[in-house]
């Protein structure tokens, strides 16, 4: 008989991450951690070293974040590395980890730890793998989309797709407004899947 999963949700330290925690915290018996990876150094690397974002994309994404509503949350555990995540997993006896907009690439040691890792990706896979997917969707006018929950494997955004949630961007809206549609779909997908997992665990106990 399967026990109810012990869930850890790790989010990036931005307004979307805090919104997700505010939505879940206190409503579900789950643990939270924040990855403070949205540093100036990381943004510089995204543009110049890794060439994952264009300057135009960065301006649009930064503007959307600036205008987005922020949420106050209670202090949470901070994870800056795979080692930090592993320590938290052992400390809290975690069985499932869900990640949303974090800057840590999950390594082989974590993936072989016996814990299931899932990532929320707010775009269709494999068409829009990698960083900046919502901006690329907007530029391509590929407005008929799905948010995707997939297993984390060593190759980025290449794991088994577990569940999807369709959404529709609108050509008459700005990038900022369309980004909101995409990330709302991703958060809705994650919340509904966690609810389902917890309910399944309770039914099987």
General description of the model:
The longest helix has 30 residues, at 175-204. A 7-stranded mixed sheet has the order 3-2-1-4-5-6-7, with helices on both faces. With 205 residues, it is of the alpha/beta class. It has a single domain, classed as Rossmann fold (3-Layer(aba) Sandwich), CATH 3.40.50.170. The protein is built from 7 helices and 7 strands, in the order E-H-E-H-H-E-H-E-H-E-H-E-E-H. The chain is globular, with a radius of gyration of 17 Å. Helix 3 packs across helix 7. It has helices spanning 15-24, 40-49, 55-67, 82-92, 108-111, 133-140, 175-204; strands spanning 7-12, 31-35, 77-78, 96-100, 116-121, 144-151, 161-168.
Average pLDDT figure: 90
Helical proportion, percent range: 40-55%
Order of helices and strands: EHEHHEHEHEHEEH
Report the portion of residues in β strands.
15-25%
Low-confidence stretches: none
Estimate the global geometry from the Cα principal axes. globular
The CATH architecture classification is 3-Layer(aba) Sandwich
Strand order of the largest sheet: 3-2-1-4-5-6-7
> How many domain modules?
1
User: DSSP helix count?
Assistant: 7
What is the CATH homology-level superfamily? Formyl transferase, N-terminal domain
Ends distance: 7 Å
The CATH topology: Rossmann fold
- What class do helices, strands and sheet pairing give? alpha/beta
Largest sheet: 7 strands, mixed
What is the CATH class? Alpha Beta
| Rg calc | 17 Å
Total E-strand runs? 7
